[in-house]
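Technical appendix A lists one of the benchmark inputs used to test multi-chain prediction within the project. The record comprises two sequence entries:
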Amino acid sequence: MVRVPIGQRIRERRRRAGMAQAALAKMVDISPAYLSLIEHDKRYIGGKLLRRIADALELDLDYLTADQDTRLVETMMELSAASGIEGLDTESAASLVGRYPEWARAFIKLHRNLQDATETALALSERLSRDPELMALSHQMLTQITSVRSFSEILAEHQDLGSDERRRFAGIIASESDALTSSARAVIDTLEHSGDAFRPTSPAREVDDFIIDNRNYFASIEEAAAVLRRDLGDERYLSDAALAQRLFSRHGVEVVFGPLHCARDVMAPRLEIAEGAAPSTIRFRLAQRLCALEFADLFEEIVATARVSSAETHDRVLRALARYAAGALLLPYMPFLESAEALRYDLDALGSRFGASFEQVAHRLVTLREPDNEGVPFAFLRADPAGNISKRFSIPGLRMPEYGGACPRWPIYTAFASPDQVVSQLAAIPGGAQYLFVARRVIKPAVIHGRPATVFSVMLGCEAHYADRIVYGDAYASRRDSVISRVGFECRSCRREDCGQRVHPPVFRQGLRERGEGAGDGPDRSPVQPALVLEGVTDGRP
Amino acid sequence: MDAREVGEGRRQILIAEDEPFIVESLTFLLERQGYDVRSVRDGAVALEELSSEPPDLLILDTMIPSENGFDVLRQLRQMPHGGAVPVLVLTAKGQESDRRQMLSLGADEFVTKPFSNQDLLARVDRLLGDAGRRP
């Protein structure tokens, strides 16, 4: 796991508070010598000691835990790998983030804009190669992208730039980015009916950022959902009838079951639900619409805190919040958390107890982040059979890929071959970290003859040391080599050079290994362990 | 500075590109690598420079004004010593036909916009390494 140096922050804030080292050491009950080691990043600390230091300095714990910084470092590394920039290592990225977090954020933002713009320009180039005006515009955009990319790389790779040069290059990036936006608008104007297809920024990515910034936990929605639940009778299983009744009596919304599945408009006077939809889907859709109506003002307050650049992002955030609230209403926080711990995170058992689908349970588990009442921290990923990733949530240390696919040896992909069974894996990542992955194929059947079913695979992942609390971890209790699968995060950043599934050359080579990598975790010379099927068929079980 | 200075002194690179920021970033990068860099913004001036003071390498954008990149390359290859100057062409993605045409005119190497700095520098180094062994 990446560690961002936080000692310097502690030292700065202590000095700013006019406090001597000995005084702070006494307050937090450690020796001044040990505090000195911490302040010089010679010792990494966490838990209660970090909390005591934060309290003594009257700081928000988040400021010191560096979770956000860790995410910044991991994003930088992923983007560097995706862009094919060689020679950047995790240590220097962590150092940049520790000292100049704003520069790191700027680097990430620019690369994301660049990615979006490149995709737009390439799509245009392909489609419009016979239109001279559009050809010129597309050439102009590629030129502007080239400038932005080149100067971004210079800023990232040449640490010795003078401040004047740094300012000038940053200025060029800003002006070329603006010019790029204008070019994109010119293209959109030219393509009269294709405006929506060529937006310069990606609303989906903005929504992801918003959710991650909030650690996928919204205390105000949890409280509002608890109040609504009490109003509705506070049964463990809220009935469809109770939800539909509230929708009609309070909001005049009529629920209609029919062959068509449509209308995402929360203001529509009818809620149309596909005939034959699964009971968990019906309940979730009722809850989602009800929450969208009941909590409209609250949602707007929350959206006001987000960096939202378009009406579409705004609408997407509102929909994401309505889904979150539906989860909070149907799977109430404390009962759900207690059940999860008692059932050892058995997703199917939780689904049966609360009348929820596998995906709904997985989603809710990811949101159990209430301070002092946290569940196991999970990352989340959803992919389709073609490998496209449609939902992701990362946690510090376990970053779900933002660009391209994940490692094909993750169980999220092997789950497609084991329908209706939970598939798990104890995964070792180059660098030595181990994670427990749990995945299952989920299918939404077609409700009309002849239409295709919708198929996804949903995966949760957590650090391996939580495996003892999780039923799926039992298969790996021995921790022997024979039960560990050697995998990566995604191809470019993975160092397993002789992996049979490799599709991109590795950006990081042997010489750039992180320190602390175990001797037994070098290039993959042993076959990857098959993911275990834990339910139903027991083939392959140790 | 390094091997680039050995022998007849620092290697000379001429950039023919009309986009000022691309010229600025290329100049910055190449000078840091120890090359001497000159730049021109149109094809006619590029041809004058190529004829009066041939560089060790030409970086040529396909879409420069006056004489475009194709014309510059064609005329360069007809100059008495024009065959000896390696040419790295900057093209944009989606211009495969341009690439083929440039190749037939005698281009040595291509870099496609948007390019990575490291990729471009590696190609420049390779071309100048090759250039020493040219007839």
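The domain at 11-129 of chain B is CATH 3.40.50.2300 (Rossmann fold). Strands of chain B lie at 12-16, 36-40, 57-61, 87-92, 109-113. Comparable benchmark entries are summarised in Table A2.
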